[in-house]
Amino acid sequence: EGNRLADFPASTFIPLTNLIHINVAHNQLQYIPIALQGLRQVGTMNLSRNSIVRLKEVADSAGVMSTIKELYVTGTNMAEIDENDITLCPNLVRLIMRDNKISIVRQKA
Question: Cβ(30)–Cβ(6) under 8 Å?
């Protein structure tokens, strides 16, 4: 039933240059860590059942996950989608955000 990961050091996934799917569901992540934002081949990311309160770690972060086509953020603590959160994944095709507490979607989200 998952782990208790709350963050990753920024260099955690650097050696995994061919990684195309990552599932870090059922952990204690509160945002998408910079370490995950640096993955350059990943097309599918599952962040469901974490303590995520927002997508980006830092609101004005320049982090971009341009290869992500599917993002699963189901059953988290997310209550709002902030400005530019979705721009984190400019090539997103599928976004699954079921069972959250989202009540606010900011302009330019």
Answer: yes
Per-residue pLDDT tens for 21-80? Answer: 999 999 998 888 878 877 888 999 999 999 988 776 555 555 667 888 999 999 998 888
The neighbour count for residue 30, using CB atoms within 10 Å, is: 17
Q: Which one-letter amino acid corresponds to residue 74?
A: T
Please, are residues 68 and 45 in contact by the beta-carbon 8 Å criterion?
A: yes
User: Contact at 8 Å (CB) between 19 and 43?
Assistant: no
Quick one: how far is CA 53 from the chain centroid? 10
Start-to-end CA distance of the chain, whole Å, equals: 32
60-63: long-range contacts, CB 8 A cutoff, minimum separation 24: 60/84, 61/34, 61/37, 61/88, 63/32, 63/34, 63/37, 63/38, 63/88
Say if residues 95 and 74 touch (Cβ distance below 8 Å).
Answer: no
The total number of residues shown for the chain amounts to: 109
